[in-house]
Write a structure and sequence with these properties.
mainly beta, 8% helix, Immunoglobulin-like, 8 strands, single chain, 130 residues, globular, 5-stranded mixed β-sheet, 3-stranded mixed β-sheet
Length: 130
């Protein structure tokens, strides 16, 4: 078999890349260590889709409750403004709403993750940028 035929055969047998199950920005939650729990989302009104976010639990089930306003297109899992994150799993993916005003959308995580000794956790939030 010639080199060009082998190359063509290899190309055909390569697997296609599968799409991500949860496209978007991931916020990981763990009980033992505080991770970065803030996200900056853009509302791209041009030809690009707006940013999305989802939460991943590394250990137990969590609830993420937004304190004032809801910045996403999809309705919350539970009212008022609460997202469920299954134990060792991912939440649904939430896309920023085109009409959400710019600013920070604070939320609480329950049960709260532990902070590092001497370093309190900053308040988690999702920032919506133009």
């Amino acid at each position: 078999m010639s080199k060009s035929k082998k190359k063509t055969a290899r190309k055909k047998t390569k697997k296609k890349k599968s799409l991500k199950a949860n496209p978007g920005i991931r916020i990981k939650i763990r009980k033992s260590v505080a991770d970065e729990d803030n996200a900056h989302l853009k509302r791209r009104k041009s030809k690009h889709a707006p940013d999305s976010v989802y939460w991943r639990s590394a250990d137990v089930e969590y609830t993420v409750t937004f304190t004032r306003a809801w910045p996403f297109q999809r309705p919350p899992d539970i009212e008022p403004r609460t997202i469920k994150v299954p134990a060792k799993g991912d939440s649904k993916t939430f896309t920023v709403d085109d009409d959400a005003p710019n600013g920070q959308y604070a939320y609480n995580i329950s049960p709260p993750p532990a902070s590092k000794p001497g370093q309190p956790l900053p308040g988690p939030d999702v920032s919506v940028d133009p």
